[in-house]
Design brief:
Elements (H helix, E strand, L loop, with lengths): L12 H9 L4 H8 L10 H15 L4 H15 L5 H9 L2 H10 L3 H10 L1
């Protein structure tokens, strides 16, 4: 996956490929990604791989996974230099965040999702 230019994601490329192939691995891979401290600029190549995983995570009934996804998207969004490049990918998550905010019972998780939304 030489198309991903974000070095923060390099150690997770194999895991991201696994998540694309096997959605049953979504939860474990999201947990692994939760340890990433994003410092590199985030562009569409990084988002194009991570956003589908985050969409799948936000759709899960597990509150902690939904909170983790909200935090990951929020952290990555802060490092997007060109909003026009990222907009189509991030816009796909808006309905997911609206659903999380409306249905998640945990106030802390709802707050994280609201701040990211």
């Amino acid at each position: 996956m030489k198309g991903i230019t974000n070095r923060d994601l390099e150690p997770f490329v194999a895991d991201l490929i696994t998540a694309i192939k096997d959605r049953e691995e979504t939860t474990e891979i999201i947990k692994k990604l939760s340890s990433v401290v994003f410092v590199q600029t985030v562009d569409s190549s990084a988002l194009s791989v991570v956003v589908p995983l985050m969409a799948a995570g936000l759709a899960q009934p597990i509150v902690n996974i939904r909170r983790i996804c909200s935090r990951i998207v929020g952290n990555m969004s802060k490092l997007v230099e060109d909003p026009l490049e990222a907009a189509p990918l991030l816009e796909a998550l808006i309905p997911k965040f609206e659903d999380v905010i409306a249905t998640i019972p945990d106030p802390e998780a709802r707050k994280v999702a609201t701040e990211t939304h």
